[in-house]
Hints:
The chain is α/β, with parallel strands linked by helices. Helices cover 36% and strands 18% of the residues. It has 14 helices and 13 strands.
Amino acid sequence: MSTKRLAVVCNYVLRPDRIGGMDRFFVAYDRAVKAKGYDVDWFFPDLHELDFYTDVNVFSAEGNLSVEAFFLKHLQEKGKLYTALVTHFTELCTPFYKKAKQAGMIKTVIAVDHNPRPLNGFPIKKRLKNRLKGYLNHKATDRFIGVSSYTARHIVKDLGKVVARKTGVIYNGIDTSVFKKRKSNDQKLEGKVQFVVVSHLRESKGLQDLIDALSMLKPEVQNELHITVYGEGPLEDGLKQQAIDKAVDHLLTFRGSSSEIPKILADYEYLIQPTYMECFSLSILESLSANVPVITTTVGGNPEIIRDGANGFLFSAKDKMKLSLILTDIVAGDLKINEDTSILIENEYSLDRMVAEHINLLD
């Protein structure tokens, strides 16, 4: 029997209609950790029946407790001991880490930060609270990992220099084999230029700016493009009404969530992501893997992957006029991407590389 035990605590809801990049990472990581001789238990806030996770030992809080509180309760009731604890999408430097380390007799605690920061930074009260949390609780966490250089910098900025020496970067990666690849970099000679959005529909994703940008386009430009939106969220009804109010609803089709994104992306010419907050977007990696260039903002880790004019186009968040100009120039053929955007992803942002670097943290 293995003497090494790993607990992975993820504040991430598993859903049958969303098998995305993180789901593929979790399953691949589980397989790789077991190959290293670990028994692995996974803890999620909620779980729907998912064939994708059949071989993963999952415990679900079923929405009754936070995943952190559920894990602490599990330690108390089951009396399990773990060699290591890894967290994803959880708040950093809370008392949870110390409590878990003590209750589970855990030797190594690794906190992976996927959480974006507000466009204008945290308010001063939140900044002071973060710094105090860092001072009081940092010793319980052995490694802090950001999913981009931007994220790692902000971990130190938020929590203080006390965490700098144990903060590092592991970039997100994706399974490039599941993505259908767009064959041509040329704009379609006939028909409209097809753009796609893959996003949760909430204010921080900036889709309201895209609708305003569409309303700024001249009619002859509007007639030459169409945008399909995949995703759902609290802003969906508001976005649809905004599009009607701005008289651009005929330019948009809302398709809801889809588990077929890896096959669908190649049907489009550009992905649009007008986001205000981002760490290191899996949607961007997935689009580039499908050889679909990306139009996005300069926030977070976006400039670490998008090279303006090479594999996409960048604009400042909330700059609706700039976005409208980019769309106009693409439709006119004055802006275009000539390189195969998938090569960079295959070489530097693969799922295998991401898994291997996370496994190395356990050694």
